[in-house]
Amino acid sequence: MSRIGKRPIPLPPKVEVQVGEGSITVKGPKGALTKPFNPDMIVKVEDNQIIVDRPSESKKHRSLHGLTRTIIANMVEGVTNGYSKTLDVVGVGFRTGLNGKNVTLTVGYSHGVEIPPSPGIEFEAGTEQATRTPFVIVKGIDKEVVGQTAAMIRSIRKPEPYKGKGIRYRGEVIRRKAGKSGKAGGKGGKK
């Protein structure tokens, strides 16, 4: 039995669940999400909790059991509290800003980069007061879309290992490399 799959998903108050043929809809205070799931999986709503079961012990059903339960749990968490990812923009002269709903990044290119939000995504941009580091916050109710949008923003200027400049997730550790070490020394210089 899957340790994750057999755990029931508790339903918070004000959250409604409708299970259809091969899809599930979760409505809550933040919005509504609908996602498909494998029709082999058995999803039931009992006593204010969602229970995911599998029809057999085949490898396919065992692997889908925990996945289906986690996707549904993420949907419940999303419509209840929502998800957010914070990206720090590190570099001299790098800036962030909002242009309507779009986020604008100035990250060392000859032009600014403007990113429109995906459906269900909101941006916040600003500068950290203590460290003066620009940041972008990606918010939404669908964990997959929030993560995908944050990864797309990060890919615009990935952090480089020598000076650490670029766009990184808050809390991400960048492995640094030493630069060239042959600058000082007496060999082969002009006489």
Keywords summarizing the entry:
2 helices; 19% helix; Outer Surface Protein A, domain 3; single chain; alpha+beta; 191 residues; elongated; 2 domains; 13 strands; 4-stranded antiparallel beta sheet
What secondary-structure arrangement, pairings included, does this model have?
Layout: E1 9-10, E2 16-19, E3 23-28, E4 31-36, E5 42-46, E6 49-53, H1 59-80, E7 83-90, E8 95-99, E9 102-106, E10 113-115, E11 121-127, E12 134-140, H2 143-156, E13 166-169
Antiparallel strand pairs: 1-6, 2-3, 3-4, 5-6, 7-12, 7-13, 8-9, 9-10, 11-12
Q: Could you describe the 3D structure shown?
A:
- With 191 residues, this protein is α+β, with helices and mostly antiparallel strands.
- The chain has two domains: 9-80, Outer Surface Protein A, domain 3, CATH 3.90.930.12; 83-169, Alpha-Beta Complex (Outer Surface Protein A, domain 3), CATH 3.90.930.
- It is 19% helix and 35% strand.
- It contains two helices and 13 strands; from the N terminus they run ββββββαββββββαβ.
- The chain has helices at 59-80, 143-156; strands at residues 9-10, 16-19, 23-28, 31-36, 42-46, 49-53, 83-90, 95-99, 102-106, 113-115, 121-127, 134-140, 166-169.
- The strands form four sheets. A four-stranded antiparallel sheet has the order 11-12-7-13, with helices on one face. Strands 1-6-5 form a three-stranded antiparallel sheet, with helices on one face.
- A hairpin with a 2-residue loop joins strand 3 (23-28) and strand 4.
**Spatial gap, N to C terminus:** 77 Å
DSSP summary: helix tally: 2
For this structure, what is the CATH class of the largest domain? Alpha Beta
Q: Give me the CATH superfamily of the largest domain.
A: Ribosomal protein L6
Oligomer, anyone?
Answer: single chain
Biggest sheet record: 4 strands, antiparallel
Mean pLDDT reading: 89
**Structural domain count:** 2
